[in-house]
From TrEMBL:
The keyword Cytoplasm is annotated on this UniProt entry: no
Transmembrane segments: 288-312, 333-357, 377-400, 421-442, 462-485, 513-534, 718-751, 772-805, 825-845
Name of the protein in question: Permease
Keyword Transmembrane appears in the UniProt entry: yes
Cellular-component GO terms for this entry: plasma membrane
Coiled-coil parts of chain: none
Superkingdom of this protein's organism: Bacteria
Keywords: Membrane, Transmembrane, Transmembrane helix
Length: 859
């Protein structure tokens, strides 16, 4: 009696589709379980990468800095940090030293110069652009002062008669914003030309000895700034960031203890600039994990339901064998183990493949971050637990089913009552109640959402709201379909036999039909919701920053430029425009150049054609100043500020770059006189060029720029990303549910293969054409998948459109988050649905063509 168990793996090959479905079901369950853990860990890694990108590259580790350090104490401080750095896994520190401004420095007999002496060891000179001279020991002078004052290489500066080291090189001055390597040194290494005299300069020493000689020559008792930092590789994961933070704390403690023993405890102060970033990254990982836990639980339940369905299908196929084995003394446990022996290997292979695929495809479905090694281990352990649970469920379902069917008496009526109770129970009310609870949490989330909270946590119940809304609609649709199929025996459409046969086949399989309809609707609706909300937040970040900044780069200037007196530099004139701004009068007034505005401005969600048309009307003649009205009419004061004349509205827009949705006007610069232009207090340059190119061109033209802002730095993008990463898992769940729905449809076709084959063969012998029979199958399957597609897409898009604005992490900035264009998604789902129906129809027709009618009748 051991032969069936020994031959079970080979016997499984008689039903390859069952093997494939069992393996794929286990693959999807383990894939989702592992993906949930990896998704959260990758979100933490992505947050670490984002924080590393906006932080200075030498601020990941510890920073030692102090002002007014005695000259004699500096060497001991530097030596102490160097001694302890390697013990904690750090390389040699980069030391930066700057003096106070040395006033009265003399060049070529003129003592009106003011210089700051500076030195950065290691590769400091490599990050300066040498315009003339060499790297011989001495001082490097900036080209701004050197070129304006005709100071050449070889000049020996003096201070109160004492000679300083000679000028051996001329470097191009560091501009604001400083290059990334100099980020932390911006305050000392970059001369603000707007706030300082033209003769100010930073002179860098080529080596430490030259710097010490210059300090002694000047006679400075203290160093203005002593700064020691480490250029470490940026951490990729939360674990790496936390380890770096702990090592940094230990290094600071050791250095402070060492200097304290030497009586120099106050000579330097250690700090951890990246500590806040580590906290934020850890919170991001935690928020995403907590937010997706309900979805992860749903995914595991879906996988278990799939395994249960496979078990029932296997029981149906092996019913005769199981009855025989039971009659010969095999108990439910042994029969359950028979199912495990037959399907256990494909389930095991599928589960392992699912866990591996979850790791390999993380870059496709997950955040752009590296997961922790510990998270990968936890993910694989979760997959192992799901595998064990799947095998136990397989054995349990078969054991319980065989026990009730072969060992208990008179269970049929009780079983039918139980099934009937499950069918009539109003599950829709239960899911609708959960959806209502989630909606209440979602409303509260929308009210509490503020950009000041760097990491808004998506409430788990709020996250389940879209899923349960879609599930409620799917259950309602399934109940309506169940009732319609129950009453379908009254249909008399034999004049259209293909349609009548399709209806009868659907009615004979009400349970599988309604199950596939629920899963398909839930899959498509969840996928639409996840994609809609995730992409909606990404687009919201793009459009909000476009409206807020007005362009890729905005640079404030002291006065209007782009005129005959101060033309725009040629290298940026083709991608830039100048705007003026007046505020404080109840309305914002933006002064633009209609001819060049579209060159550099970013319009966000506004229609380019509409804006161009309205800008063209700003030059129309007539009484008053032609103006485009922005924002709410009732909130605006009539007319323009005093001195600009009366406004003559030529069009209206709901928002505009820089103004946003506030009440305001847009007028043309050409409509104002030269005297009126001087009354505009603020002028800005909007450009599509990078900020570095813009700054260089304006500096070369002698145009000062007190403030700069770019779209990348205007808003904290991490809150948007966290919401997007959270809902990308919902999209992943929808995609997996879609695969489950397709498999369910194919299983339903496979389970009824013998019945469909016999019925199809008989109707063909009765005269029905094969094309009509194929049309009948396509009607049956097309109706089922078409309902799922239509209901799922409509419900998913509606829920996403309602939810996207609620999840906006910056509700106070215009425009509010909105649903992206759903047309591509709808067309893609429709195309996939058509392909699935065609495949299922081909399988059904293939079983009819290969059927042996006599054998089917005897069976």
């Amino acid at each position: 009696m051991t032969m069936p168990w020994r031959a079970a793996p080979r016997a499984a090959l008689t039903s390859p589709l069952t093997l494939i479905i069992a393996a794929v079901t286990a693959l999807l369950a383990c894939f989702l379980g592992t993906a949930a853990v990896l998704q959260a860990s990758a979100a933490g890694g992505a947050a670490v990468a984002y924080q590393s990108g906006i932080a200075c590259p030498d601020s990941y580790g510890p920073v030692f800095s102090k002002g007014n350090v005695p000259v004699g104490a500096a060497p001991e401080v530097i030596a102490a940090v160097q001694r302890h750095a390697s013990a904690h896994g750090f390389g040699a520190p980069v030391t930066s030293r700057y003096t106070h401004v040395v006033r009265g420095t003399e060049f070529n007999g003129d003592s009106n110069y003011k210089v700051t002496l500076g030195y950065r060891d290691q590769t400091g000179l490599d990050h300066l652009e040498l315009a003339g001279g060499s790297r011989d020991a001495g001082l490097w002078l900036g080209t701004v002062v050197a070129g304006a004052e005709k100071i050449g290489v070889g000049t020996t500066p003096k201070y109160q008669g004492a000679a300083l080291p000679p000028v051996t090189g001329l470097y191009r001055d560091l501009l604001d914003p400083a290059p990334r390597w100099w980020c932390s040194q911006q305050r000392n290494a970059v001369v603000d030309r707007l706030a300082n005299d033209p003769v100010d300069s930073v002179m860098f020493a080529t080596d430490a000895k030259t710097f010490d000689d210059a300090v002694r020559a000047v006679g400075l008792p203290v160093i203005k700034t002593l700064y020691l930092s480490f250029y470490e590789m940026p951490p990729k994961t939360v674990s790496e960031a936390e380890d770096l933070l702990e090592r940094s704390k230990a290094l600071i403690a050791d250095v402070q203890e060492d200097l304290g023993a030497r009586g120099l405890g106050d000579a330097i102060v250690g700090s951890l600039p990246f500590e806040r970033s580590v906290v934020i990254s850890t919170q991001a990982e935690s928020n995403v994990l907590v937010s997706i836990l309900p979805l992860a639980a749903i995914s595991v339940l879906v996988g278990c339901a799939g395994i249960g369905t496979v078990a029932l299908q296997w029981h149906q196929r092996r019913h005769a064998q199981l009855r025989l084995l039971s009659a010969r003394g095999s108990g439910p446990v042994a029969l359950g183990l028979l199912a495990v022996a037959e399907l256990g290997l494909p389930i095991l292979v599928g589960g392992v493949a699912g866990a591996v695929l979850a790791r390999l495809l993380l870059g496709v479905y997950g955040p752009p971050g590296e997961p922790d090694g510990g998270a990968q281990l936890v993910g694989f352990l979760v997959a192992g637990a799901i595998l064990l649970a799947s095998l136990a469920l397989l054995a349990g379902v078969i054991g319980v089913r065989t026990h009730r069917e072969f060992e208990l008496g008179r269970i049929r009526s009780g079983r039918r009552k139980g099934v009937k109770l499950l069918v009539i129970f109003p599950w829709e009310l239960l899911t609708a109640g959960v959806a209502l609870l989630g909606w209440n949490r979602l409303v509260d989330y929308g009210k509490a959402s503020r950009i000041g909270n760097p990491l808004p946590q998506v409430d788990p119940l709020a996250l389940t709201y879209p899923v349960f809304v879609v599930l409620t609609v799917g259950l309602l649709a399934a109940r309506m379909a169940w009732l319609a199929l129950h009453a379908s025996h009254r249909a008399r459409l034999w004049s259209r036999p293909a349609l009548q046969l399709a209806i009868r086949r659907l009615a004979s399989a009400r349970a599988p039909v309604t199950g596939v309809l629920v899963i398909g609707t839930l899959a498509i609706g969840t996928l639409a919701t996840g994609i809609g909300i995730a992409r909606g937040q990404e687009e919201a970040l793009h459009t909000k920053s476009a409206i807020f900044v007005g362009a890729e780069t905005r640079v404030d200037t002291e006065s209007v430029i782009g005129t005959g007196k101060t033309p725009l530099p040629s290298q940026i004139s083709g991608s830039s425009t100048v705007v003026g701004e007046l505020t404080g009068t109840g309305s914002v007034v933006l002064v633009v150049d209609p001819q060049t505005f579209r060159r550099g401005a970013a319009l966000g969600p506004l229609s380019a054609d509409e804006v161009d048309t309205l800008l063209g009307r700003l030059s129309t003649p007539g009484a008053g100043v032609p103006a485009i009205r922005i924002g709410d009419d009732a909130a605006q004061k009539p007319g323009l500020p005093a001195g600009l004349g009366d406004a003559r509205t030529v069009g209206e827009l709901p928002m505009f770059p820089i103004i946003g949705t506030k009440a305001g006007y847009v007028i043309s610069r050409e409509s104002l006189s030269a005297a009126q232009l001087t009354t505009v207090p603020k002028w800005s340059l909007l450009s599509a060029s990078p900020v570095a190119q813009l700054t260089e061109a304006l500096t070369a033209a002698g145009i000062t720029q007190p403030n700069r802002i770019t779209r990348e730095s205007a808003l904290d993008a991490l809150p948007f990303y966290v919401v997007s990463w959270t809902f990308s898992f919902m999209a992943l769940l929808g995609a997996v549910l879609g695969v489950v729905a397709v498999l369910s449809l194919l299983v339903a076709v496979e389970v009824r293969r013998r019945q469909n084959a016999l019925a199809g063969a008989l109707v063909l012998r009765m005269g029905m054409r094969p094309r009509a029979l194929l049309a009948s199958h396509l009607m049956e399957l097309g109706t089922l998948s078409g309902l799922a597609v239509v209901i799922g897409v409509a419900c998913g898009i509606s829920v996403a459109g309602l939810s996207v604005p609620r999840f906006d992490p910056a509700t106070f900035l215009a425009p509010r988050s909105a649903l992206p264009n759903p047309t591509p998604f709808a067309l893609t789902v429709l195309a996939v649905g058509v392909l699935v129906v065609a495949l299922a129809g081909w399988i059904a027709m293939r079983s009819v063509r290969t059927a042996r009618t006599a054998e089917l009748i005897r069976a």
